[in-house]
Write a structure and sequence with these properties.
Layout (H helix, E strand, L loop, with lengths): L1 E4 L3 E6 L11 E6 L1 H11 L5 E7 L2 H12 L7 E4 L6 E6 L5 E6 L14 H6 L2 E5 L8 H11 L5 E5 L12 H8 L5 E5 H4 L8 H10 L4 E5 L5 E5 L8 E5 L12 H14 L4 H15 L12 H15 L1
Parallel strand pairs: 1-4, 1-8, 2-6, 4-5, 8-9, 9-10, 10-11
Antiparallel strand pairs: 2-3, 6-7, 11-12, 12-13
Length: 316
């Protein structure tokens, strides 16, 4: 069983290009990086349990219904009677690139409490945690408590998902110093690591990450694919591997990193070697960019296999 931990929020997507708040109308869509990972795993064939917290409001009802429609169990989807559901307002420039303004402080999204989900944690074979919760209390304490209690037999993955504007009460670099030794796999971009003082090219960043504690580091490189590094402690073998990505007709890159993460967790938990897992995860990420939206565009196995087959045909 897999357990995903983190925020599920309502994304407000603009009807026209412009900065955050410039559009006249917005469309609500389910979002939040951990929620995207949970749904991504479900679409790839194995729905995880998802520990999150929603407000008892219209946005919360909308998100709860969206998760249920994807087959994500609702036993760990908490509802808060007082705090509202978290929101993200999205901006979109003329080239399709997105920007986000997150409204999480004081919302149900960051009201996870320590000392809970004991049964789910005890039975989890893989636990994935998002980093946004670590910027706020009490969710920060809840995540750190969970990392302290997770079984040694479980694989723990972590997405820092750096959002500099959120880090007001706690220090981001100090937080990574605390979390990285407690996890096995970290999935990140260079943009996630620079604010914490990590420097160098992708290979150097991956090396520095595994030196900090995880046995596996996966670096997403946007249109250039991804690179991974694993130490001798990794069950999928040691070494460094990369894959240059896939040529697809890109419509929207929102959530591609979350799709990659779902693909990587799926492939590695299935026992694939590091290089094959990166190739599969890249295919999931690429497939997710061929439709509009983050969660809505997450692919199923058939779509991923189509991307993989296209590469094989070109190589043939």
């Amino acid at each position: 069983m897999r357990l995903v931990v983190g925020e599920c929020i309502a994304d407000l997507h603009p009807s026209e290009a412009g900065g955050v708040g410039d559009a006249t109308t917005y469309t609500r869509r389910p979002g939040g990086a951990p929620a995207n990972v949970a749904v991504g795993l479900a679409r790839l064939g194995d729905a995880p349990r998802f520990w999150t917290r929603l407000g008892r409001d219209g946005f919360g009802d909308f998100l709860a219904d969206a998760l249920a429609a994807e087959g994500v169990p609702d036993d760990l989807v908490e509802r808060d009677e007082e705090a509202p559901t978290g929101l993200a307002v999205v901006g979109r420039d003329a080239g399709g690139e997105r920007s986000f303004s997150l409204y999480l402080d004081g919302t149900a999204s960051v009201e996870l409490r320590p000392g809970t989900v004991d049964d789910a944690l005890a039975s989890a074979e893989w636990v994935h945690v998002g980093g946004v919760e670590l910027a706020f209390e009490p969710a920060r304490s809840a995540v750190l408590d969970l990392l302290d209690r997770v079984s040694g037999d479980a694989t723990v993955s972590f997405d820092p998902n750096a959002r500099p504007g959120l880090w007001r009460e706690f220090d981001y670099a100090d937080t990574l110093d605390r979390v990285l030794p407690a996890v096995d796999v970290v999935v990140a971009s260079a943009e996630d690591l620079r604010p914490a003082g990590f420097a160098g090219d992708a290979s150097e960043l991956a090396r520095r990450l595994v030196d900090a504690g995880p046995h596996t580091a996966l670096l997403t490189l946007g249109p250039n694919g991804a690179l991974g590094r694993a130490t001798a402690d990794a069950p999928w073998g040691t070494g460094e591997a990369d894959h240059g990505g896939f040529a697809v007709d890109v419509i929207d890159t929102t959530g591609a990193g979350d799709a990659f993460t779902a693909g990587a967790i799926t492939a590695l938990s299935e026992g694939r070697a590091l290089a094959d897992a990166i190739r599969f995860a890249n295919a999931v990420g690429a497939a997710s960019t061929t439709a509009e939206g983050a969660m809505a565009a997450l692919p199923d196995r058939e779509s991923v296999e189509s991307v993989l087959a296209g590469e094989s045909e070109r190589e043939g």
